[in-house]
Every structure is written in C-alpha cells, then in structure tokens.
Amino acid sequence: MSSTISNPIDIPYRFSDMSVGPFWRGVLREAADPSVVLFNDHYYLFPSMSGGFWHSADLTTWEFAATPDMPTYDYAPDVREIDGHLVVCASRSLKPCSFFRTADPLGGVWEEIPGTFAFFDPNLFQDDDGRVYLYWGTSNKKPIQGQELDRRTFRPLGKPVAIISGDVAAHGWERPGENHDPGQATGMGALMTRIAGTDPYIEGAWMTKHDGVYYLQYAAPGTQLNTYADGYYTASSPLGPFTYSPQSPFSSKPGGFMTGAGHGSTIQDRHGNWWHMATMRISVEHMFERRIGLFPAGFDADGVLFCNQEFADYPMTVPDSPADPWTLSARAMLLSYRRPVTVSSADPAHGADLAVNEDARTWWVAADAEPAQWICVELAEGSVVSSVQINLADHEVRPPKPKWGDTRQTLVWRRRIDLTEPAVQVLLEGSADGTTWEPLHDTRGAKSSRTHLFVELDEPRAFRHIRLTGFAQPYGAKLAVSGLRVFGHGAGDPPAPVTPRVRRTGPLNAAVSWDAVPGAQGYNVRYGLAADKLYQSWLLYDRTGLDLSALNAGHDYWIAVDSFNENGITRGGPVHVAAV
After folding, report:
1. What's the domain count of the chain?
2. Which site among 83, 340, 403, 530 is 20 to 30 Å from 118 CA-CA?
3. Rounded to whole angstroms, how far apart are CA atoms 193 and 223?
C-alpha cells in the first residue's frame, strides 16, 4: 500500500551536546549525511550523530536500533552491501578507521575489521566483478579521492587517485554563501563562509553504477547553507578518469520551508524506483542542526541522473509499485501559509506569524513553559484538510547537567548524544466552527521525541481551524513551533500562468523576473539544460524575481516559472537563455 510522507522525514532526531568548540549555543537535534541501503528486502539508514541506525520495511516508517560498539558517534557513517554483508565505516581524521561487518544487522553482532588509514566522509562500493573501492574526502582544499581495497581485509591496493575538486569559476552552484552570495550569509553561515573563503567544501561521496556508467556523487558548498546540494561526475571505470556532468547539481533545494539537499545516497527500492536521501539544514542553534530528506530520483533515457525536488517539503507519495518519479510530489497544497493565527501567549521576539511563514529557521515561542500552551491557525473558507505537519523548534533547550556518579547520564553526554528520547507531548485538533473540536493526533503518554510529525487524516475533512496544544517538551522547554503546516485543497482556482523575463547576467547567473499573479502564494522556478529537462527547481514565496546563481558556465539554459496557491499549480513554459 502506498504511503504519504513530507520532508524532513519523521523520525526522533537525537539531541547532541555541542558544548565544546566555538559554536556552542546549547544542545541541538541532528541527523545528517544519510547513508541508506536496501539489504535482504529491508532498508537500513545510518545518519551522523544518531547513536545507531534506523531500519524500515517501506521507506516511510522507521525503527531505531542502538549500536554502542559501532562508530556511529563519528560523522558520516557509510553503509554498503559487500559480499552479502552490511559493512559500515565512519569518519576519523586522526586515527585509522575500522570497518564493521554483519550478515544480520538486527542481531546486533558486528565483526570489526581493523583499519589501516584515516579518512573522512567515506563511501564503499562493490563493482559487478566483486572488486571493492573506497571514495572519501571533505575539504575546501583537498580533493575527493578513490582507491581500491581488498574485498576481505579492506586494506588499500595501489595508490589513491584524486578525483573531484571544486571549480567555482565554472560551477555556479559550488560557490559558498547563502544563495551562493557570501554577503547574504548570516550567523554561523557567515562565520563559516569567512573561514572557508571562496573555496567550497567538496565532500560526501556516493557511487552509483547505472547501465555500465559510474556516477560519483558529491556535495558542495557547505552544510550550513541553503544551497547545499549534490552534483556528479561520470566515468567508464571505478577510478576514472571522471568527467563533470553539467546537469549538476542533480539534488538541490535552495527554497521552501526547509532548505538544503546535499551529502546523500542514491538507491533503488524493491520496486525498482530510485530515491535520493540527503541532508537538509536548519543551522540556527548550531551549524550542524540538520535533518534528512527523501526525494524521488531516476535516470532519464540519456542517462542523466535527476531528483524530483519540486515542492519537496509538501506531501509526497512513496509507492508500493513502479512509479514515475515526477508524479509523486505535491500530492496536496499548503493551506496555512500566512493565514491568521491565534496563540495562548507569545515571547515578544517570536510572534505567532513565524509558525506560518514557511521558514524552518524562525518560530513562534510560548511565553512560558507551562503545559497547555496552544497555537491555532484559521484556514480559508471551504478548505479541505488531508494532512498536517507539526514542526517543533528546539528553543533554548537546556538539559540538566549529569550528576557525579550517574553512569547513564555520564555515558550519554560523554558520547554527546541523548538516546533517552525526551518526551514530546502534543494534541492536534480540528474544528469547523472554532467551538467544537475533534482530536486528530495525540502523543500524550507516548514515549516518542518526534518533532517533525506528519499526520495524515484517514480521509480529507473540511476544517476551518487547526489547533496544536503542547503538554510536555524536552527538558521542560517552552513550546516552540517553526511550522504548523496544513495541507489539502482550497475551494478556488489555481492562479493564472506566469510569463518570465530571463536575462543571462554572467557565466554562472541569470536574472529571472515576472509580474505578480493575483491570488498566487508563490512561484516555482524550474530550470535545466534542455526544454524537456527542467530538472532543477527553486521554490519562492511572495517574490517576483530570482538571481538564479547555480548555473554552469558555457551552457545554455531553459527556465520556466510556475505559479501556485492552495488550489493548485499552474505550469509555465520554458524560456531559452544563451550562455555568455
């Protein structure tokens, strides 16, 4: 049976104690750099800083398994199937990285194979002939490298080969900065941009072989940026020589509620459908405050690797049979954008409107931490609700310090991850008249710490009001909501089409503008290297222009602008813009 999800994926992201280093602002939730595989008809997901892995039968509902003896406290754990076993490794820069192998991941017994050298952001790959390769690297100075390994001992064979380095003169999307502009970065993003300078971080390798071609994927320019994305090079052999694909970035989500789609993994599900799982960013409390997104992907008839990231944080279908990846997204429209909101109370610096402004980096905060604080959004008349996504923010979360002799707490915070899942207790209700309320989802008493709850109704219902009440938040924090996002369909018509004006302003940029369309919530800018390959997109609200800054030098582009509102999407036709 097909399921519906909405990004970021709905799992209990772990709290990490980041009390060391220059970026401390408290504890934060984090999962990033997702490595996912299908093994023995089951999906296994290893993300950074999670204290274990998640597993799933359907890519939608995930269960956690702790691995205290594994390197899952090191960043960017990699998982691949090698000779009928799952093999996991992770990042260490100062000492050799071991490999861990098992034929029964849920049995909890892993064989350690001692490593012989250090690496960061690893990715293993076994070719059809059984030979094994490792790709690794995360730096704004050094390239991603590749090397053959012995398939049993994982010791190096031969010498490493330098493969991918940044090229900001030719690849617009690799340029650091918010919207690829260092001057637009704020907070930690600005600090990291100053540290890195104009050189992007090239990292997060992942190898996929398709129809005899090797697709080496990589991330740039920085995890804390809205422009964090994945591109790729291709070759006819595992160690190259590799050629850059101008279809890069193939995974990119610079606009919308939650941005970023870099450092990921690409797999086929049991039905043959392709998926790309990648890192999304919040990066407010800390640059590593990150989440995970799942996106439909595929290869076209010309061998171009792509992701469907149109409306990529709207409800999306995960099918139980082969499906066209371009039919899976935007299964419902947003009903809550900038609608009237009432609240029980508010911190003066975090008003109620911040819960419906489609920005995961801002949030409403209740005035105090007393139970039963609430927020209510009023929908337009005639709205039919099919789902609600509840996005809770970690506002000034301060856990108690471990007491001397408290073994559990000491272990937890020495490892920097809290596996206790501090309770998140909320009640979601709907009402047609604002007086009589119907419960839609209730986590009171549940032992769960999920903060991106996606609630799909059994059947679409006509509601005028949606209310969320908080009863307990982690460590006694205040209720904070970055997005009370209500989906379904309105009673009106989609907006009129858009005719964009497009002008190339440089080798890497194009100016795109259009006239505002009455009744439109926003606009989706689609672009690509051919009129029928508009594979990249950039979602915008309340704007009538975009400096499209992610282009590749020396290539013509075709650009279209779609208008949308709560009633649907109106496609725009592509406009050609020549290279300069």
Report:
1. 3
2. 83
3. 11
Amino acid sitting at position 384: V
The tokens 């059994």 sit on which residue? 458
pLDDT category at 580 given cuts 50, 70, 90 is very high
CB atoms within 10 A of CB 222: 27
Which residue bears the tokens 């956690």? 64
Q: What is the pTM of this model?
A: 0.95
Tokens of 84: 């009928």
d(CA 129, CA 276): 25
Q: Give CA–CA dist 566/580, Å, rounded.
A: 38
Q: What is the pLDDT of residues 173-221, one digit of tens each?
A: 999 999 999 877 666 556 666 666 679 999 999 999 999 999 999 999 9
CA distances from 276 to 43, 124, 261, 555 (A): 13, 17, 9, 25
Q: Which of 370, 384, 574 is nearest to 488 (CA)?
A: 384
Q: Do 59 and 168 belong together in one domain?
A: yes
522: β partners: 541, 564
Q: Which residues contact 297 (CB under 8 A, 6 or more apart)?
A: 250, 251, 266, 274, 275, 276, 305, 306, 307, 308, 325
DSSP result, 113-169: E--SS-BSS-EEEE-TTS-EEEEE--BSSS-EEEEEE-TTT--EEEEEEEEE---TT
User: Domain span at residue 140?
Assistant: 31-323
